[in-house]
Design goal:
Helix content: 40-55%
Number of helices: 6
Largest sheet: none
Radius of gyration: 16 Å
Mean pLDDT: 85
Structural class: mainly alpha
Shape: globular
Length: 117
Amino acid sequence: RIGELLEKNDVVSKDEFLSACRSSELLQKYNLDNIQNFEGFLFPDTYYFTPSMKAEDVVCFMVDNFFKKISQMEGFKGLSTERMYYLLRLASIVEREYRVKEEAPLIASVFSKKYCT
């Protein structure tokens, strides 16, 4: 969906954006070379991009914003990239599953080894 919005607003083509999201060079830049793409690391925010930007610049801007935002969140400092990626995937699953906000911790506990005994 992000790629479609970027293309619609003449920032970058969807295909170029998706390709940059899978760039092994960019993933290595952020020490994320153990994952396949930046899904989960593109922080949902309001961005002001200029027309005809490079796809790599757009991705880096969004990923930089992600790391800036999470560095301010309790519990994320010092996490390994593997653990962070696990938590991002878990959050994505939980977000799709709960109907009432209060259900989210219970659903997360079902998926998280930390809460399973």
